Every structure is written in structure tokens, then in C-alpha cells.
From TrEMBL:
One of its GO terms (cellular component) is cytosol. Belongs to the RecA family. RadA subfamily. Gene3D superfamilies: 3.30.230.10, P-loop containing nucleotide triphosphate hydrolases. ATP binds at A97, K98, P99, G100, A101, G102, K103, S104. Keywords: ATP-binding, DNA damage, DNA repair, DNA-binding, Hydrolase, Metal-binding, Nucleotide-binding, Stress response, Zinc, Zinc-finger. This is DNA repair protein RadA. It comes from Bianquea renquensis. GO terms for molecular function: ATP binding; ATP-dependent DNA damage sensor activity; damaged DNA binding; hydrolase activity; zinc ion binding. DNA-dependent ATPase involved in processing of recombination intermediates, plays a role in repairing DNA breaks. Stimulates the branch migration of RecA-mediated strand transfer reactions, allowing the 3' invading strand to extend heteroduplex DNA faster. Binds ssDNA in the presence of ADP but not other nucleotides, has ATPase activity that is stimulated by ssDNA and various branched DNA structures, but inhibited by SSB. Does not have RecA's homology-searching function. Plays a role in repairing double-strand DNA breaks, probably involving stabilizing or processing branched DNA or blocked replication forks. GO terms for biological process: recombinational repair. InterPro entries: AAA+_ATPase, DNA_repair_RadA, P-loop_NTPase, RecA_ATP-bd, Ribosomal_Su5_D2-typ_SF, Ribsml_uS5_D2-typ_fold_subgr, Rubredoxin_2. Residues 68-220 form the RecA family profile domain.
Amino acid sequence: MAKKKETYLCTSCGFESGKWMGQCPQCKEWNTLEIAAAPAGAAALTSPLKSIKPSDSIKRLGEVPVDTNSRIVTGIGEFDRVMGGGIVKDSITILAAKPGAGKSTLLLQVAQDVAAQGLRVLYVSGEESESQIRRRAGRILEKIHEQIWVQSTASMNEVLGAIYSVNPQLVIADSIQTFALEDYPSRPGSPTQTIECTNCLLQAAKNPEAPRAVLMAGQLTKEDELAGVRALEHMVDTVLYMEAEQGEDLRVLAATKNRFGSTGEMGFFTMEEKGLVPIDNPSEYFMTRRDPGQEVSGSAITVVREGTRPMIAEIETLVSQSFTPYPSRISDCMKKDQLNTLISILEQRGGIPLYDKNVVVKTTGGLKLSQPSVNLALIASLVSSVTKKGIPSDTALIGDVGLTGELKRVPSLEIRLRELDRMGFRRVFLPYGSLRKESVAKFPNLEVFQLKTLSSVIQKIFGDLKRSF
């Protein structure tokens, strides 16, 4: 009988090889190829077609029953928003973040809120002991609910046994790269173990007789990518990422994949001593309130849209004289190429030279700027900083700016204007033709200026700029 050929998988990138090699030819890592053996006792199917039988489980799509109460609403508004309205009862979700970002804290808070609804929650961890989890829960939870069950183990076999013993409606696994099945010889965190352990939890979640939701924590690589093979992201229903800047309290939760909701939604939290606190009104958080007449130069207000929610953002710029041949261009909220493009537009179309000026750009709260709708406000902020003239605190600017200096329309303007009206703004500058008269009439408290060019906006806000800069 011929010996079965062995397959080797790279534990770093998932490359598959028919023989062992010291260095992976794909990711160039050394000593990462391990045997991907079949489960012990598994019989090879020499002729798979012989086992095929007619199936009686197929249904017409229109006859499949739909559960209208298929979501678990946790009560953590920002988390539910990103999930699309709550956790789907027969879904599997992975939450990835850098160490210390707060993913375990968030999962524990979700467990508490779900248990408070009378649902059983099983929290399993391959990283922390049960006493460590208990101490963390005592720190961030006022009272630990009796419906939360905990298990500390690295064995997925024991986890599956616990699932069928407790029969929870929610399973939390922290983290998936720390578990291993006894049937496979590779170490925890290897592509084989990660995929097979995820597959076991997937089967437990999709069980039609006892559907349950599964939340998994995921580890990130040095490149800030989900550890393991790419197939892991394809297997799960939702992929969440939590972003956190070092030394900052702000936490941003975003979905890069969501089969049950929008991938554009974002949730905002602040990390405090008692855990993650949702920011229910981001517009208030990402701007500075100033009284009329107390405006400062270098600040401009715009409205960004994250998913279905509009948010007011404050852009701050600082322009100073450079005494070196190469002026600095510093921004932690947008790409440097985008900033340089806007500076060039301002120089050529706005008539304000910045070739000998240092430019620093940031946003209040550390919000990232990736949408074209912020470009007009950023350029206005630069003009304000150069001229040392503040933009009125009740004024906002929304629109893109082309290389020709013409203002370009952006989508969802009515939603953005509704947010400005709610927050008490009185003037807004938009590209020409953005809104019809009937749409403008919906906002009687807002004075809407629809202009064609960047120079006309500068003229309207700052007046004639004939002085030399």
C-alpha cells in the first residue's frame, strides 16, 4: 500500500507545500512549515462519488422560514450599530485589535449585557486564567451576572464539551489563535488549528436545532492584519476591528465585513477605569464649542458620514514660517499625498503661497479624514491659519475641491445639513447646484451658500486678501 503523501503548511502565511523546506518561499520566514496531517483515524475516500445519495433537506428559497426576532440587542449602542442592530443569533463574529486596545474588555461588557436579558453566556479563554477573568470582571462590572459561565482552557475539545453542557445562547472565545484540537498535531495558532477550531465554532453556531451566536477575539500580526490564513475572514459572518492610538483614550470600532449590516458603520468609545464607555453623541465629542466672537484662526468645521451616521468634525491647521529648504508637512489624520495636493490647489487656485511654510494638520479627537467632503473645510482652515482670521463658530463647509479650483458636489448632503441644524449651526458653504430650493427650504435655520469656486469661498469668508503672505 502506497504511503499517504504529507502536506506542509506555513504557520506564518498559510503556504502549502508537498515537502518540508527550511524557508517558506512565499513569506521568506524560516522553520515555519509544519505537517498538516489528517485527523487521527480518518479514512481516505478513494471514491467520493460512491457515497453520494439524494438529499431530502433542500427547500425552495421562498419557503424558508425567517425569524423576525433574530438579533440579540446588547444595549451597548455603539456596538449594536456596528453589528447592524445587534448580534444575529446564529452568527459567528471575530473582533481583532492590538494588545491593550480593549477587545477583551468589550467582550466582557457584551457578555454582561446579554446575560442581563436572561440568556446564558459562555466565556472561554485560552489566554487568561479564570481568576484573572474574575478580577477583570470585578473591576469593570458593577455586579457579575449569574448567567455568565467561564472556562479557561486551550483545548477546543473541552470548549465544545462546555458548549453542549451549558447550551449557551452566546459563546465568547478569547482568542481563537490560542485554541487547539487534539486531533491535529500542529501547535495552537497554526493555520490548520485556527481554521479547524473556527470551523468547530461555526458548526456550533449554525446548528439549526440550537442556534447560538459566537464572538471570537482575534490576534493581529505586526502588519496589523488578522493572524492566520485569509480564509479565516471568509469563514466568519462579521469581522470587526478596534483601533486605538497609543496613549489615547479613544477607541474606534469598525466592521470590514458584515453579512447582516453595513460595513461603513463605526462605533466610538472612550477607555475609562470602568471599561469602555460609548460616545453616544460623536458630533459633540469631535468638536470644540466656542462662543460667537471667540473664534480662533486655523479651525474649520465640516460634516463626515460614517455609515448611516453624520458626524461633525473639527479640522485644525497650523501654518508657520519654515527656515529650512524643505518645509514640513505633518498630518496624523490624512494621507500626506492628499494634504500636499490640497496645498497645491490652494497655492495655484487660491493665490496663497505656502512653499516656504510648515503645515501641521490634525482633528479634534483624532478622527481620520478619508472622505473628499472634508477638502473644502481643510483648505479654509489653512487660509484661516495663514491670515490669522477665525472662521465664525456657527459656520461649516462641506465639499470637494477639484484641481481646477472648482467645488465638487458630495453625496448625502441633506443628512449632513440635518446634523448641522441639530447642533445649532447657522451658515454652511456648499458646491454650486448641490441642493434644490425645496431642499434648502427644509432648513430654515441654516443660511446656505452654494458657490462655484474656491476663490469665491475665500472671498466670502475672509474678504479681499491683497496683502502678501
